[in-house]
Automatic annotation (TrEMBL):
Root EC class: transferase
Signal peptide bounds: none
Compartment(s) where it occurs, according to its Swiss-Prot or TrEMBL record: Cytoplasm
Origin organism lineage: Bacteria, Pseudomonadati, Pseudomonadota, Alphaproteobacteria, Sphingomonadales
One GO CC term, this protein: cytoplasm
Annotated ranges, domain Phosphoribosyltransferase: 33-149
Protein name according to UniProt: Adenine phosphoribosyltransferase
Pfam families, per database record: Pribosyltran
Reactions catalysed according to its record: AMP + diphosphate = 5-phospho-alpha-D-ribose 1-diphosphate + adenine
Amino acid sequence: MTLDQIKALVRTVHDFPAPGIQFRDVTTLISHGEGLAAAVRHLSERAAASGAAMIAGMEARGFIFGAAVAAQLGLGFIPVRKPGKLPVPTIGVDYALEYGRDRLEIDPGAIRPGERVVIIDDLIATGGTALAATELLRQAGADVSHALFVIDLPDLHGADRLRGAGLTVDALLSYPGH
């Protein structure tokens, strides 16, 4: 399946969550077996080319794509969780959202120092969550140099922010506008 065919499976919801926003909904892609498999295959090829030893995905849709890529490549998966979800001692990082703050946590024992970890998520918008995940994984000793996404919203400059933090950024699909 081509990237254009995958793009046709992503639904656009107008005026969600606020007027003027065009929400790019991957639910329709995830529910399409062939489309999901193709997206995972494309992401897997890029993750393998980056030399990934492990895959990290941010809660929640990053779990879907990241875990599938990890399984396809035979690699381990690191869940980057919201606070209070892991049953072991964690390390965490607070980060800014458009309207407030949030926190991400990981089990630092899931990472061996120097291990090459590739971040995968469904969408890159402003880059706040991906930057926080990168900081957290690096704090745990990971070598994080690549971030992969299904969708990039380039007008929000998140990929540029990640590049400024020393990451190579790649996305399967790009949608101009918000």
